[in-house]
Amino acid sequence: MFDTGLVMRHNKGCNPYGLTDNDGNPYSRKDTIRLFEEIDINDEELMQLNRYIREDRNHHSYYDNVWKEVDNEGNDCNFISGKRLFDDSISNKTENDQPKEIQNVYEPGVPYSFECRYKNSRWEGKVADLYSHSGYVEFTVIGRGSSIRTYIGNSGYEIWACFPTYNKGCSLAEPTDVFWNTEKLCQVLDNIPDGITVANAIAAIGSQITDGDYDDLDNNVRF
Rounded to the nearest 5°, which phi and psi values hold at 96? Predict the structure, then answer.
């Protein structure tokens, strides 16, 4: 049984979770606790729900489906049901659903180290932590003192790059078009050496994926 003290304080004539009866009257604290007991809510779930509602009282409620999940009948789940369904789907993933190291797909000797040049400067770039997901790959580009987490995907219409650390992204040309990609990435990353390093990293892994065997890769990952 969950700690009923975690139920948020009710103001007169309202319910902090957006719960109402068939007549539109807000649930009392007692009614709210009864509902949470019926669905076997636990302390952690209730605390997560409370935090979510406190983020924006005008828009969030128990009924919100922030997990974008639907039940077996196709109906939107509420916050708790959606979270439980989401957690179950994650825990039931098979080993084949988990990210795979692309390095293990190909024969040894794949060139994940490369040389970068800018004016009179030269430096070595490397690709590390390279993984394949459904529709995109993620990896870390290392070079000239920078370490940039990079996500590259293909929507079927265009190739895109995303850099969550910088809250930036852009479309790209083919991986082998280092010149065009360098210009775009230098603008996005606001740093010429970093843009050059990432463009060369994309070329290094892109050619291998293009020429490689896709049997062990997700069918959506294409360059």
Answer: -70, -20
What b-and-e string marks burial along 190-209, b requiring 16 or more CB atoms within 10 Å of the CB?
A: ebebbbbbbbbbbbbbbbbb
Count Cα atoms within 13 angstroms, Cβ side, for 52. 21
Place of tokens 């084949």: 96
Phi, psi dihedral angles at 61 (to 5 degrees): -155, 175
3-state DSSP helix/strand/coil percent for the chain, to nearest 5? 35, 25, 40
Phi/psi of residue 4, each to 5°? -65, -15
For the stretch 71-82, pLDDT in tens is 777 788 899 998
For residue 20, the 8-state DSSP code is B
Alpha-helix residue ranges (DSSP H) falling in the chain? 29-38, 43-55, 79-91, 178-189, 192-211
pLDDT per residue as tens digits for the range 90-125 = 666 544 555 554 444 333 444 578 899 998 888 999
Helix (H) or strand (E) holding 115: strand 113-118
State the Cα angle at 215 between 211 and 218, rounded to 5°.
95
| Greatest extent of the chain over all pairs of C-alpha atoms, in Å | 76
